[in-house]
Amino acid sequence: MLERLARSFDDRAGAIPQLKSRATALNVGSDVSQLPMIARWLEDEARDLRRRAGILRTPSESPFASLSKFGLPTPTATEADAGKKLDAGLRAILATHKNGTPQEQAAAVKEYFASLSPTQQAVVAAADPSFVGNLEGVPPKVRFAANRISIQKEFDEENSYFQGLATNDPAYKRTKARIETLRSFLNPRLKKTSDGNGRIVDVEATRQFLIFDAHFGSTGDPKASPFPDGRVAEVVGDLEKAEHVAFRVPGILNRLDNFNDFSKGGYNLIQDAKRVEQPDTAVVSWLGYDTPEVGDSVDPTKAILGGYQLNAFRQGISVNLRQDAKTSLFAHSYGTLVTSKALQSGLTNIDNVTFMGSPGLGPNIHSVADFHMPNTNFFAMRAVGDPVSYTQGHGDDPADFPDIKRLGTDGATGHSDYYKVGTGSLANMQQILFGDTKKLTFTNTTLDQEKVGAAEVRELVMFLHERVDPEVVNKMGADLDPIVQGILNGRSSLKDVILPIHSVLNKYNMLDRVKPDELFGEVQKLAGNLAYKQTYKAAKDRGAPDFVAKIAANTAATSSRGLLTVVTWPVVKVLEFDRLRNNTRQLVDGLRSDGRKMLGDGQEMTSEVAQDGRRIVSDGTQMGGTLFKDGGNIALGIGDTFVHPGHVIDNTAGALKSMDHAKSQFLSKGGDAVAAFNRATNTVVDKSGSIIHTGRDMGSKALHKGTDVIDSALNFVGF
Amino acid sequence: MGHGPNQARVRFVDEITAVVRATLRDATVMDLPSSIAKEAVAITAFDESETRQTQELIDALIDALSAGGWSVDARGRRETEPSLYAAKLDVGGGSFAVQSPAISFNGLVDGAERFG
Prior knowledge:
The complex is a heterodimer.
Chain A: H1 2-25, H2 35-56, H3 63-69, H4 77-81, H5 83-96, H6 102-114, H7 118-127, H8 129-132, H9 140-163, H10 172-186, E1 189-194, E2 200-205, E3 208-213, E4 231-236, E5 244-249, H11 259-270, E6 281-287, H12 301-317, E7 326-332, H13 334-344, E8 352-356, E9 377-381, H14 387-391, E10 405-406, H15 424-434, H16 447-450, H17 454-467, H18 470-488, H19 498-507, H20 516-541, H21 546-617, H22 621-643, H23 648-667, H24 672-717
Chain B: H1 5-23, E1 28-32, E2 41-46, H2 54-67, E3 71-73, E4 83-88, E5 92-99, E6 102-109
Antiparallel strand pairs in B: 1-2, 2-6, 3-4, 4-5, 5-6
Helix pairs in contact in B: 1-2
């Protein structure tokens, strides 16, 4: 009924241009000037009615109905039984090619399916939909059908679980979103196309899923949703016939339950200026890796694995594309890091790569040349106010690469506008994909031009990264990110970040690497830089000569630094006290543990030398007397070492001297005595070396820490 | 005179501007966003026709501040970056920096409640 109503609205809207023409011809055009607005309203309402109709439909489709949606025949019962055999045949093919490349495996699978009749293809899809639907090389429409069967099954299971949830259950909201998303996968989407009369109309199109696995990936928050993130890839257009093919790679927080937010960008990408979908183009929105949550977005691990998965997907799907298809990859946010890893692990068969809103492409990529892909065009975009690009959490921002083509993004702001209709960013991507690259627009805006404070934030992050241990950088980044985002979003000012940053450093035991006065100094410098830039520009805008503008900017920097000193004095004092406590604790702990080690070594040495000494004594009292005397010296030396760490070197040197003297006494006696003596000497040298090392280490640590303690104390009281 | 945060800020800006104009008569005065905090006041003024040296300018600024009822702390003055702190009860305080022909100020409104 809703569909019928929507159609009647469309018909009414369609009649309006004709009515307007007639009114104009009758010279009453001005009396009907509202008609175009009414037409637009009718079209919008029709669209909304269709959307509501989609929501109301509770999918309940048999596997055979799913097959027929993609033109596959409905097998008979006898034919259906053959499914298991055919599935076994498919798996046998894969086993034969298990050591092949993804492309070789996909080619073998494609060949197998080509040998099957349409009915047989339908049968094997219905027999094992989750396997067939996600297997590279299977003809796309068979995968679409298989995945549709899987989606219906998943919808039924999860809907049943959802019906049992109370509305105040923590999992209610996300589960509901997931159910609605699964429902939407089974309902048609609306796409614009030209009807026979040159009008652009909305028609329903069955959604096409190349990948569907609802149980893949991690479960970010089990209370909010017991289901893992899932893997999904949707295709818009005809993949096998398309001259232009795009692969889209998303960033963090993308999951099955919010997949429609991601796929919408794909619908926008394939449309021309009139929003009609290009018939010679296909877009794959690929959510094929386990995306991080916010907490692990600074960790590259999932990107490395995702890169392998993306490369395997690209190689596998190549058997289903036209040989001459032009391919483009569009990556967003963390997805740019995934793509970088994919390119580095063998994904080189791609004509165009575009990075947008990138946090960096890995520590080893500083330019396009680092990819060694001379036949691929590389592009980058950074919208005004995109904070992810500013923080460079994973390496250099590709938008700043010296050899990249940096595209304009007019109308896009922040991190999530790149695919928005009407923006320069989307227009540029469409030109790359199916348009004319001569019509691309470029930009070279600096951070200062894009967002006040962005350059300073980037410097602050680099300052911290340079000083902490590399393995801590990633972990610390998760805590640091909200602080720097706060500055960029205007939620906090530079004066407000010293204490939070210090807390983060304390959490990761990095206070030694960034002392409070260093941190304060860096923030002060950045505040001064920011004041300088703003004032210089303002003075120039007001007609000041350059040298005057610079002087004015200098005074602004000085006065801002002066104010910062005053307003953060209490905070810095608190931090210095923290550091004093921290250093004192470390000094005491160090003395305890190193002292214990020295004690252990000394005890061992005493006992070994004493044993050897006794052996030597048995060879003769004269020698024994000398040795005991010298042995007595040695024992004393070691005993003294326990009490006075600073005397370690003196005592051991004295012990060695005694041993040398005793040794010379025995050289003329020869034999076992000498051998035993040498062993005792070696023991002393070996152990005392260790004692010296430990003592020196402890001593230098003590000196270092002690100096720090003194410095901290002096700073604290204001000297 | 009105009350409330905006009025306090307006008064603060007016007072600083008055001091600056008393020192640099024909200055272009700019009220800009502060790099320290959103709530801070940042004013920079310049007069390209000014011929006095920095030291003279500082002395003139101190005189203007004192005449305007401000307390001045110039103990931290350094030759390389001449600056001083100044504050006025119920108005605000902050840091001045001077380098001829420019003067700059960064400060905070005095929002403290007074009792008694």
